[in-house]
Amino acid sequence: MAVSNLNPDAITVAIVQGPTTWVQWLPILPVVLCLTGGAVLLMIREHTRHHAIIALTVLGALVLLDAMLLYHVASIGPLTVMMGRWIAPFGIAFTVDITGALFALSSAIVAFAGGVYALGDINTSARRYGFFPFLLVLMAGVSGAFLTGDLFNLYVWFEVLLISSFGMLILGSEREQIDGALKYAILNLIATTLFLLSVGFVYAAFGTLNMADIARKANDLRDTAPLLTIATLFTLAFAMKAAAFPVNFWLPASYHTPRIVVSALFAALLTKVGIYSLIRVVAMLLPVEREALSLVLGIVAAATMVLGALGALAQSDTRKLLGFIVISGIGSMLAGIAIGGLQGLSATIFYALHSILLMAALYFVIGQAGRMAGDFSLHGLAGIYRVAPAFSFISLALFFAASGLPPFSGFWPKAMLLKASLDIGAWWLAASILLAGFITTITLARVFLLAYWRAEPAIAAGGH
Asked: How far apart are CA 269 and CA 357, in angstroms?
């Protein structure tokens, strides 16, 4: 159509005409804040002594922004801002509901705690090579993934995550780090490629990448081959990102290689972005009646839970052990997605929020224990209780939470998963949840008895 023949109002009606309040800008501010902070740190990269205070200031502000987001979403409902002031579904949307706000706030809290922990964990060399700028860019990607309402935009934030996380993984450039980083990068690049292909299929099928618009149009394609194909591709891509069986070997091969604070951030945040994205896509694209894909997801969930727990039981290095605990937890979250419905997805969201906070805390306490002992093996960590009883009790409480013992935080989402499994007659999935929890309890009890309770030579002698 010639430009002269266009209706003068054709563009105007597609653009927001009313004024935008400051509240409407809240969904994008966390991303802008982190990207700006990262850019500032890059500009003063030679002055590393200022990096920590600037990064912690930005991360503290991020926590406050995400808390404001959660308050407003809980008070008045979901918030949406459209880039370029286009009305939906034409522009790129940032949309926040209660789930996204909870994930964003939990992640910001972990990032701030990680920044504080890094003060004693990251050496001068790692600071010089950009730990704090990478951290802020990583949080821009995490925040963007949790707050976006556009599928291609989600892909962009996955790319930001991949680049920044790879940079953090190779800080120090030790041989073991490079080996783990290559495995991490290759599998995640494959997952990202599958994600991009899936986005292309979605656009071909729906003519839009706005998540809300896709959810509306998906009703007309339920139980059709294109919808199932798209959902399967997304599920495979996000399952690889989340480290689900059988494509999870990259996680235990890489998460024990960097500094503890990097491992803590990865375990708490990166796999949860995959789970969150899977929740969004499953809820958006899949019909209620999706028995075939649910069965496959359920089998994958059961295998991930049990094999992750068994892998943890076989480890003597506590960092590798925690990597397998992360994998087992991913299986529990996948179980809720496989079950579906309000019960299953609620249990997955609850478990994911619990895992974001818990896994970071577990890595922090194991890191502190390793710093005290000068060793991360179970033998080298022996005798911690006699040196630091209060610290040992904190560690024990975290172990109880990871095992799913009442009344700690891990018990309640697992109880929800068990009930949801039995309600749909999936007794084998419920049995897998119980078995994985039992093995995890044995594993962490072994850690406490050998590393904390058992009498050994004084830690100070080994830890200087």
From this structure: 9
| Tens of pLDDT, residues 119-159 | 988 887 777 878 899 999 999 999 999 999 889 999 999 99
Nearest residue to 374 via CA among 251, 463, 444, 308: 463
Residue 89 CA to residue 107 CA, distance in Å, equals 28
- Predicted structure pTM score: 0.89
Residue 382 exposed, middle or buried by CB count within 10 Å (0-12, 13-18, 19+): buried
Rounded Cα distance, 165 and 143, in Å: 14
Place of tokens 């979250």: 333
Q: Encode pLDDT of 175-194 as tens digits.
A: 777 777 788 888 888 888 99
Give residue 378's Cα distance to chain centre.
27
- Output DSSP code: residue 258: S
Query: Residue 125 has what pLDDT?
Result: 76
Do 382 and 389 meet the contact criterion of CB atoms below 8 Å apart?
no
CB of 367 closer than 8 Å to CB of 276: no
Model confidence over 312-338: pLDDT tens digits?
Answer: 999 988 999 999 999 999 999 999 999
Q: Which two tokens stand for residue 246?
A: 């059988």
Closest residue by Cα to residue 150 from 287, 17, 283, 280: 280
Alpha-carbon distance values, 21 to 16, 81, 370 (Å): 12, 10, 49
Q: Quick check: 431 pLDDT over 80?
A: yes
Distance CA 114, CA 106 (A): 12
With residues binned 3-state (H G I as helix, E B as strand, rest as coil), the percentages for the chain, rounded to 5, are 75, 5, 20
> For position 231, what pLDDT does the model report?
81
